[in-house]
Amino acid sequence: MNSGVENTYNMTTSFSDNPEPQGACCLGTSCSLATEITCIAAGGSWEGDGITCNTETCAEPVGACCIGDGCFQLISSICTNAGGTFNGVGSDCESDTCSTDCPADTDGDGTVGGSDLASVLGGWNTPSGDLNDDGTTNGEDLAIVLAFWGDC
Ligand SMILES: [Ca+2]
Ligand SMILES: [Ca+2]
């Protein structure tokens, strides 16, 4: 019997017997520590080895939400339920995020110009270039572009 071989074997065995790494597991917005396999089996979202649970871990991501011309940092489901427009996860409320001062700036570049005119003309008689929310794109929307032509 060679005790050196036995020691090596024991070391190898104990290494492979290490428990599966645990990490934060999100089930909805609730967080608990679990292994990846356990978490996924429970229908959760595993955040990764060694990730701990804190108040932010499983929070739904917020973004800028426009309700009227007011801007609020909300999660998208609350924003939508409130009748708002969600601007995307991670978006911030800046001074002009929800401004309606420049309704003809269809591409949001801060200027009403050829590209905005093109979107109205390209969406003629369809809702796609609609600026006054009447459901179609026509002379009234063209007039809005022309009235706001230039920097907003
Ligand atoms: Ca524009
Ligand atoms: Ca219209």
Describe the structure concisely for a colleague.
The protein is an alpha+beta fold. It has helices at residues 3-16, 36-41, 76-81, 114-122, 139-147, and strands at 22-27, 30-35, 45-49, 62-67, 70-75, 85-89, 111-112, 150-151.
Describe this structure in words.
The chain has 152 residues and is an alpha+beta fold. It folds into 3 domains: 21-59, no CATH class; 60-100, no CATH class; 111-151, no CATH class. The chain has 5 helices and 8 strands; from the N terminus they run αββαβββαββααβ. It has helices spanning 3-16, 36-41, 76-81, 114-122, 139-147, and strands at residues 22-27, 30-35, 45-49, 62-67, 70-75, 85-89, 111-112, 150-151. The strands form 3 sheets. It has a 3-stranded antiparallel sheet with strand order 2-1-3. The chain is elongated and about 75 Å long. The protein starts with a helix and ends with a strand. The model has no long low-confidence stretch (mean pLDDT 85). It binds calcium ion (2 copies).
Strand ordering within the main sheet: 2-1-3
Q: Write down the overall geometry.
A: elongated
List the ligand species: calcium ion
Q: How many DSSP helices?
A: 5
Number of domain modules: 3
